[in-house]
Design brief:
0% helix; six-stranded mixed beta sheet; mainly beta; 15 strands; 203 residues; four-stranded antiparallel beta sheet; rod-shaped
Length: 203
């Protein structure tokens, strides 16, 4: 009889796939789900996933921690207090031995950038003589300029105006006591000030 023979086929190279993408959200907002853009492939199959998070995004594994229960192909972060980095570790595990032949995915890091909420200030002189000019002063602390803002002067509203970190709004030919109201402030990152409306009355 002929001798028995066996053909051994090496599995294709293992790739952990790709997850993404980076996000930029305002403090207090809920990040969107981190999606699987390219699935894992190759290796011996039988993929196992573990999501990790870090406050630094460092290449030092000691600065990454496993997220309990985060073992799916995708991950939906909770509301975050500060910028956080995520990665998906993928193992290709032999069904025969239960050993992970390869562990990859450490270099596919997703950043969720947390932007501060702008804090607005709005001021005017308390008294102005009839016919004089003056300026309203609009400023932001935290947040990122330029800003977009709305304000009203009495019953007249001005919307979608562009300002800087410190904005002077000129008022000419003052005639009568007027209430000026800052209605909305949105910064470059799309974050909206929570401490509005603010009122300044000029007599």
């Amino acid at each position: 009889s002929l001798p028995a023979s066996a053909i051994i086929v090496n599995p294709p190279p293992f790739s952990p796939g790709f997850v993404g993408i980076n996000q930029s959200v305002c403090l207090g907002d809920d990040p969107t789900e981190i999606e699987e853009l390219v699935p894992a492939f190759g290796g011996v199959g039988n993929y196992q996933y573990q999501w990790q998070q870090s406050l630094t995004g460092s290449s030092n594994d000691a600065e990454w921690i496993d997220i309990p229960g985060a073992t799916s192909t995708t991950f939906d972060p909770v509301v975050l207090a500060q910028t956080t980095y995520f990665r998906r570790i993928v193992r290709s595990v032999s069904e025969r031995t239960g050993i992970a032949c390869e562990i990859l995915g450490k270099d596919n890091i997703v950043q969720v950038l947390i932007n501060p909420i702008p804090v607005a200030s709005f001021n005017a002189p308390s008294e102005v003589c009839q016919g004089e000019a003056f300026t309203l002063q609009l400023g932001i602390s935290s947040g990122t300029a330029p800003i977009e803002y709305d304000y009203s002067a009495g019953t007249t509203t001005f919307i979608n105006l562009i300002g800087t970190e410190n904005t002077s709004i000129p008022i000419s030919n003052f005639q009568e006591p007027t209430t000026y109201t800052l209605l909305r402030v949105k910064d470059l990152n799309g974050c909206v000030a929570q401490n509005v409306p603010q009122v300044a009355t000029v007599d």
